[in-house]
Each structure stands twice: as structure tokens, then as C-alpha cells.
Write a structure and sequence with these properties.
With 842 residues, the protein is of the alpha+beta class. It has 20 helices and 41 strands. The chain folds into three domains: 289 residues, Rossmann fold, CATH 3.40.50; 96 residues, no CATH class; 291 residues, Rossmann fold (3-Layer(aba) Sandwich). This is Cyanophycinase.
């Protein structure tokens, strides 16, 4: 690809530091009346908040006139898709035009679009641009945009001058991914966190290099955003390290740097000098003004400050004041959690992505003032990352989209120092492991079940129409069905009331939905003592008869042991109400539940424990309530057994529960059955009549198969070989008897057609790209021709686990686009080996 270098002079040799003279970005101050919509990439077609904001700033549905610049892409598809999305949100076709600006020929068209390059010098095109109320840059390669719009001598083309004129006079400029990267003066065109922390600098971006990291590559952007450096795909690709190093190297002491997550936009109001966040994730704000740098040759610094803002939050870029959405409360002094978090060391770390890890483990946790993570290559050369509370650190919490946790935080201190991490196999590392004495119940399955199950993995969003509509569709009488909600798991009735309101919003009759009086916990916000409900009602004949007339029963989330306490007698036998639930289920009713309401579905109920701790320590016979759901050894109780095909776990992606599901399934599962890890905001829908299951919702389901694992006396405790993992999501179907998987026909096989070709460092913590299990495997192994295996390490103190994920002849990957141009993966039969190791950190 042809690349111009404008006025950029980068280090000629890898390994040299950037200095303030490396890149000349001086620009005169301009009076800007326009606004910016800077999207972090993977913008979903369903993200109405971002689309509506862009259209509103562009003049509204009647007055907006929008030009789409396709230059960054290799085809017109993304521009055509964005145009189609705008029409979906109320614009007419004549209000939108794809502007013929590009520096290369596009695939899939008869025209040679490389000739469009000369249009950047066309007065006719410039006049057209000046009459737009908005310009949108699609994603792809940001260098194609600058190469198209900037002359080889660094001067602006007529088209770029026209864009600036429109912007100065009040127009809006928006862009996603590459279209976000060009917004600031300093344009990050390549590099990852590991390469940047090693302070490696490249003359050109090469993501498919033969190294495990990509060196930092900077050029000059178009400078529409005047308040600091912008980076994108921030959370998904874990780019904090590269943004911090760019800010430190460029010495932008008086400005923040901004990392914008996918499906999220930073809205910039130049008149008010404010930015606000809109969308589904957030924006990380980096402040290097107080940084103390020991060494930049290999990153060694402290007191970089990280803040994270989400939808509804804003920032005054002139005064540097943060304004947090008023639906949130401060967590300082009112922290919800009291658990000792493990260091974030790999795929067994609960809340293993940066925002989630810091929110749950540090900000909203009264027991700790600092947490650690790591980032290193396969030789162990890397860095220790420390995140600290200071007197200026503030946390904020509220609910969003129903009852999903919504956190913001400001001024968390970030320190980095070089470390060498080494691992040696140690089969005896976990010799004190305790086996479980739990005995699974015998469930009477002599009678066939005609009903269905909808098992949701937790954090079910009120806007998750696919799951709610599926639940309603499964019921006998659809919108007119009778639904009973069991509130037992929760400490209040709020979640039950919210679920009822959600069902009504999706078309059900409020008169047919009843919150059933079953609980062992008192809701302190009501005059009644609900803690007596179960004792009085679980064997009540009238309530049992009412339950038998229901078309659906829903279990809310909370503590799963409270559900079983509310429905089982003290001797472990079924109460009359539980028998009635079974009766209506056998006769065709749908049973559903989320979080705790999912955990109760299988015979063996996982009631507590973390991934690392359960694999390392085994099981406990005692239960200390909700805190044990954040970690500790595994704890098992009897489930209600509605799902007969294996063991279920929930909150699987966010709480990283692969390790505990493997440990439980190994000890208490039938190895010929699969085990099921259901992600948040996602449901496994079980059709008992057909003996099939499908996935519905925004995440997926991890399938754990122990039937082919290698068993050998030579293997140590907590050591496994040849566990098979599959991951399926919306539209994929599983045969529950044969274990055959049918993949959504919209996806194509990646096998032999892998998109990526790069070496992969181990997943080592919060700065590992594609941080959750399914994405790490999808991007780095299944769709990567260079990798036959990828590794992760999870450890505490001086011992831990090596996880080795391998392709085999049976491994298949599948990819497609969903919701605009978001990557959508499934994979089948990835092999996993788990080996105990000794850990040394120097």
C-alpha cells in the first residue's frame, strides 16, 4: 500500500524512544462551531443512541444532509451499510451520499475507485462537501483516509479544506474505528500494549509481523479533535498500554488522552468545550500530567491516572471536571463487596477486562486499595501493572438496562514496572486439593416433559428483545399466558417487579403476571415480612393449585441457595409447590430463570467458588453467602433438576468460570454429557420435545466436553489433558443427545480461510487483547493461520496453571457479521490442556 509520510519523522530503528520533536503537530487555534461523533469501532446497527445523536447534530431527520467517505475501507460495503442504517433511523435516501473519495480500487465493483483520488482536488466535490451538514468516515485503515485527503507535501486538498469549512461553520464530523483514529493531531496507526510498553517504534504498521507484539506506529492525523489523543477499539483490544505510552512520549501533559470502546461514541461539543459518552460501553480517560517516569526505554513509571466514563457521563475538557450521570451513587465509603481479589493474571480472573476488574475488585470493594495484573510475551519478558486507589479516586454505581451494574470511576493510579515471569511444571502444586463429598440427587424422570426451558446467564437487559420475545413465544398462550415469578433468590422484590414490567412492555398482560409468595428473605422496603413466605406457602395447597394453572414460571437472580430453601423441605423432599412446578412443566409450561435462576436448573447446583480457587483448592462443605460467589473453593448443593443434560453455570464470560465448571464436571458430572457455561445477557433455550437447544441473546454458551480427556496416573492433581471446548451463540443449535452442533447459516467456516496471521503472546491479564475466553480463542487461535495453540496463565503467589488451547483435526471455526459489522464467531472442538506450574517473578 502506498503511504505518504507528510511531516512525520519516526525513529529509524526499532527500540528508539519517540521524543517531542519526533512529530510536528503544531496547529493554530481555530474557532470551531461544529461537533464530533467519534465511535470506537464495531458500531452496531442497533445502537440507536449513537445513530440518533449523529442525526440530531447533523440537523435532524428533516434537515440532515450527510456525506459518507469510504476511503478507509477496501470495499463499499461498510459505506452502503451505514447509509442503510441511517435510512432505518428516519433519513431519506436523497439526504445521504457516498462521496467518491478513495486511494485504491475497491473489491466487488466494476469501477476503478483508485481514480477517485483525484476527486480530493476537485472544486465540484469540495462544493458538494461544503453543502453537507455532516461527514462520516467509515472504518478500515486510517492511513488510506489521510493519504486520500492530504497532499504528499502535507498540505490539505480541496476536499479536506471543504470538510474543515463545514466543520468550522457548525457541521458535524463523525467516524468509527479508522474514522475515529484520524480525529486527533497524533494518529495512532499501529501497535499494541505490549509493543508500546517495550517502547518499540516502527516505521510502518505491520500487524501480521512475526513477533508476538506490534510496535507503536504514529503519524499525523487530521486534527479535528483539539483536546488530546484518541484511540479506538480500546477495551476489546486492550490498548491502555499503547495510549499511555503515546501520551508519555508525546508529552501531552496538559491534555487527556481518550480510549474509546467498541459500540461507543465520544460526542464533542466545541462551543461548550465538553465531551459526553453515548453507547454501550465507555471511554477511558488517561491523565499523564502527574506521571513520574523512571524509564521509558522499557516502561517504568507511576502515577498515571485512569478514569472511565460511560453513557450519560461527561467531561469539561477546559476545566478537566468530570460529571457523572445522576442515576449513579458514589461507592466511596459504601462499597458493596468485601472479598480479597486475586491478581488479574489470565482467563481464570473474574471480571478480567480492565473496566470490570477495576470496578468490582478495586472501586466497589472495601477490602483492598491496590490490585495487580501482568503483561508479558511467551518468554516471560514483560511488565507488572498496578492499579491503586488514592485520595482522589472516586467510584460510582447504578443500574442500567434493567438491573445490569453500571460503573464509572475517576483517578485510579496506574503504575508499571518491568518484570520477568517464568513457569515450570509442578504436578504437586495442589496436593492439598479437597474432593467434594456432595451426592447428586436422584430426580424422577419417569414421565416425559413437554415444556421448555429458557436458562439465562445473568445480567439480562430489559432491551434484550430476542430473549424476552422467545420466553413469551414458548408459552402456551403467548401474550395472554399466565406467568408466576418466584422472587426467592433476591433480597428484595425489585427484580421481580422489574421483570414483570419488562414482560408487560413486550406485550403481556399485567393481570396475568403474579409474583408468587415464596422467599426466605425479608425485603426491608416493604411492610410485610417476606422471610416467612416459604415456611407458610411452599406446602400450601391453594398456591400449589394456582401454580399448576400457570403457563410459565420465572426465577429471578440473586442467591440460588435461597431458591432451593424456598422450594425443598428440610428433609430434601419436594414441597407441594415444587411438585406443582414439575407438573405444569411436564404438561408444557416454560420454566425460565436468570443468574441464580439458571444455577438451580441442573441436578448439581454450583452455589459458590471461583475458577482458580476451585481448581486449586477443590471444594468446601460450608457456604458463606454471596461473597463466595466472587471466589474461594467450590460449593455444591442439590439443584432442582429441570435440565437433565448436564451441569449449568452462569455469568460465565464476566466471572470467568471455566475452571470451576471443569472441576465440578470432572467430579460430579456424567462425562458423556456436556457442561454448559452461559454468558451474561444470553439464554440457552431447551426444547425437551425435540431434544435440542439453541442460543438466544447477546453472548454465547461455552460447551465443555470431558468425554475424550486423557486419564493417566502420571497426571497430577488439577491436571487435565484434551478437554474439548466449543462456543456457540445466537442462531446456533445443539442436539442434546448426539452433541452435534448446527452453526447459523449466516456464518462461514474459517478453517483454511483464516483472516489473521500473527504470533500470540499468552493471555496474562487486563491488557491482553480480546480478553474474555471466547474472543481470545476466536481471534487468536481459530481465525489465526499462524497459531496452532495459544496459552494463558492464571496464578496466585508462586503457583498456578498453564492453559494450553490447541487446534486439532476436529477443530472448526465459523465467522460472520451480525448487527452491522460486528465480528460474530462460533467454534467447535478446541482442545484444552491444564497443567499446574510453579511461578517465579523477578
Amino acid at each position: 500500500m502506498n503511504k505518504k509520510w507528510m511531516s512525520v519523522t519516526l525513529a529509524l530503528t526499532l527500540g528508539l524512544s519517540l521524543t517531542t520533536s519526533s512529530i510536528s503537530f503544531a496547529k493554530k487555534k481555530e474557532d470551531l462551531k461544529g461537533n464530533l461523533v467519534i465511535a470506537g469501532g464495531a458500531l452496531g446497527s442497533s445502537n440507536k443512541d449513537v445513530y440518533n445523536e449523529f442525526i440530531s447534530l447533523a440537523g435532524g431527520r428533516k434537515k440532515a444532509k450527510i456525506g459518507i467517505i469510504p476511503a478507509a475501507s477496501s470495499s463499499l460495503k461498510s459505506s452502503q451499510s451505514f447509509k442503510k442504517d441511517l435510512i432505518t433511523y428516519g433519513l431519506s435516501e436523497h439526504q445521504i451520499e457516498i462521496v467518491p473519495l478513495a486511494n485504491q480500487d475497491f473489491s466487488g465493483t466494476p469501477e476503478d475507485e483508485s481514480k477517485w483520488r483525484k476527486n480530493a482536488h476537485s472544486k465540484r466535490i469540495a462544493n458538494k462537501i461544503e453543502n453537507f451538514s455532516a461527514i462520516w468516515f467509515v472504518g478500515g485503515d486510517q492511513l488510506r483516509i489521510t493519504d486520500t485527503l492530504v497532499k504528499p507535501n502535507g498540505h490539505r486538498t480541496k476536499a479536506l479544506d471543504a470538510i474543515w469549512k463545514m466543520y468550522r461553520e457548525g457541521g458535524v464530523i463523525g467516524g468509527t474505528s479508522a474514522g475515529a483514529a484520524i480525529m486527533s493531531d497524533v494518529m495512532i496507526t499501529g501497535g499494541d500494549s505490549l509493543g508500546a510498553l517495550n517502547n518499540k517504534v516502527a516505521m510502518k504498521s505491520n500487524p501480521n509481523s512475526n513477533k508476538e507484539y506490534e510496535p507503536l506506529h504514529l503519524e499525523e492525523g487530521l486534527g479535528f479533535f483539539k483536546y488530546g489523543i484518541v484511540d479506538q477499539h480500546f477495551d476489546e483490544r486492550a490498548r491502555l498500554g499503547r495510549l499511555v505510552m503515546t501520551a508519555l512520549n508525546e508529552k501531552t501533559k496538559n491534555q487527556f488522552a481518550y480510549g474509546i470502546d467498541e459500540d461507543t461514541a465520544l460526542i464533542v461539543n466545541n462551543k461548550q468545550q465538553t465531551v459526553k459518552i453515548v453507547g454501550r460501553s465507555g471511554v477511558s480517560v488517561v491523565d499523564v500530567s502527574k506521571a513520574k517516569v523512571t524509564d521509558l526505554d522499557k516502561a517504568h513509571f507511576k502515577d498515571v491516572y485512569i478514569s472511565h466514563l460511560v453513557s450519560g457521563d461527561s467531561l469539561n475538557v477546559s476545566t478537566k471536571e468530570f460529571f457523572i450521570s445522576d442515576h449513579k451513587d458514589e461507592t466511596n465509603g459504601y462499597e458493596y463487596y468485601e472479598f480479597k481479589p486475586l491478581d488479574a493474571t489470565g482467563l481464570f480472573t473474574s471480571y478480567g477486562r480492565m473496566k470490570e476488574y477495576l470496578s468490582y475488585s478495586l472501586i466497589d470493594n472495601s477490602t483492598t486499595d491496590a490490585v495487580k495484573s501482568y503483561l508479558y510475551d511467551s518468554l516471560g519478558n514483560g511488565f507488572q501493572l498496578q492499579f491503586r486507589k488514592t485520595e482522589n479516586t472516586k467510584g460510582y454505581w447504578g443500574y442500567k438496562d434493567g438491573q445490569k451494574d453500571d460503573y464509572s470511576f475517576t483517578n485510579v493510579a496506574f503504575d508499571v514496572e518491568p518484570k520477568k515471569v517464568s513457569f515450570t511444571e509442578n504436578k504437586d502444586a495442589f496436593s492439598e486439593y479437597k474432593h467434594s463429598t456432595f451426592k447428586a440427587p436422584v430426580i424422577d424422570r419417569s414421565r416425559p416433559v413437554k415444556g421448555s426451558l429458557l436458562i439465562a446467564g445473568g445480567s439480562l437487559g430489559s432491551t434484550n428483545a430476542d430473549v424476552y420475545k422467545k420466553f413469551i413465544d414458548l408459552t402456551k398462550h403467548k401474550e395472554n399466558s399466565k406467568v408466576g415469578i418466584i422472587p426467592a433468590a433476591s433480597s428484595s422484590l425489585t427484580s421481580s417487579v422489574t421483570f414483570k414490567e419488562d414482560l408487560v412492555r413486550y406485550g403481556m398482560s399485567a393481570a396475568h403476571i403474579e409474583i408468587l409468595p415464596l422467599s426466605v428473605t425479608n425485603d426491608k422496603k416493604t411492610p410485610e415480612d417476606e422471610s416467612k413466605w416459604a415456611e407458610v406457602n411452599k406446602n400450601n395447597e391453594d398456591l400449589a393449585q394456582k401454580v399448576e394453572q400457570l403457563d410459565a414460571v420465572w426465577f429471578v437472580g440473586g442467591d440460588q441457595t435461597k431458591i432451593t430453601d424456598s422450594l425443598l423441605n428440610e428433609d430434601g423432599s419436594n414441597s407441594k409447590v415444587l411438585d406443582a412446578i414439575w407438573e405444569t412443566y411436564r404438561n408444557g409450561a416454560v420454566l425460565g430463570g436468570t443468574s441464580a435462576g439458571a444455577a438451580i436448573m441442573s441436578d448439581v447446583m454450583i452455589a459458590g467458588g471461583g475458577s482458580y480457587d476451585t481448581l486449586a483448592s477443590g471444594f468446601t462443605e460450608t457456604y458463606d453467602g454471596m461473597l463466595q460467589q466472587e471466589g474461594g473453593p467450590g460449593y455444591l448443593e442439590r439443584g432442582l433438576g429441570f435440565f437433565e443434560y448436564g451441569i449449568v453455570d452462569q455469568h460465565f464470560d464476566n466471572k470467568a468460570r471455566l475452571g470451576r465448571l471443569i472441576a465440578v464436571s470432572n467430579e460430579k458430572g456424567n462425562h458423556n454429557n456436556l457442561s454448559y457455561g452461559i454468558d451474561e445477557d444470553t439464554a440457552l433455550v431447551v426444547y425437551n420435545n425435540q431434544k435440542k437447544a439453541e442460543v438466544v441473546g447477546r453472548g454465547g454458551v461455552t460447551l465443555v466436553d470431558l468425554s475424550k480427556q486423557v486419564k493417566s496416573p502420571e497426571l497430577g492433581q488439577s491436571q487435565f489433558k484434551n478437554i474439548k471446548l466449543s462456543w456457540i451463540n445466537q442462531g446456533d443449535v445443539l442436539d442434546l443427545t448426539t452433541k452435534e452442533i448446527s452453526i447459523n447459516e449466516k456464518k462461514d467456516s474459517t478453517t483454511g480461510y483464516e483472516y489473521y496471521e500473527h504470533k500470540v503472546p499468552p493471555h496474562s491479564g487486563v491488557l491482553s487483547a480480546h480478553g474474555v475466553l471466547n474472543r481470545f480463542i476466536s481471534y487468536n487461535l481459530v481465525d489465526n493461520a499462524e497459531a496452532a495453540s495459544v496459552k494463558s496463565y492464571s496464578f496466585s503467589d508462586n503457583k498456578g496453571f498453564e492453559l494450553n488451547f490447541r487446534k486439532t483435526a476436529e477443530t472448526e471455526g465459523y465467522w460472520g457479521y451480525t448487527d452491522g459489522q460486528k465480528d460474530d464467531y462460533s467454534f467447535v472442538d478446541v482442545s484444552l490442556d491444564i497443567t499446574p506450574v510453579h511461578v517465579k517473578i523477578d
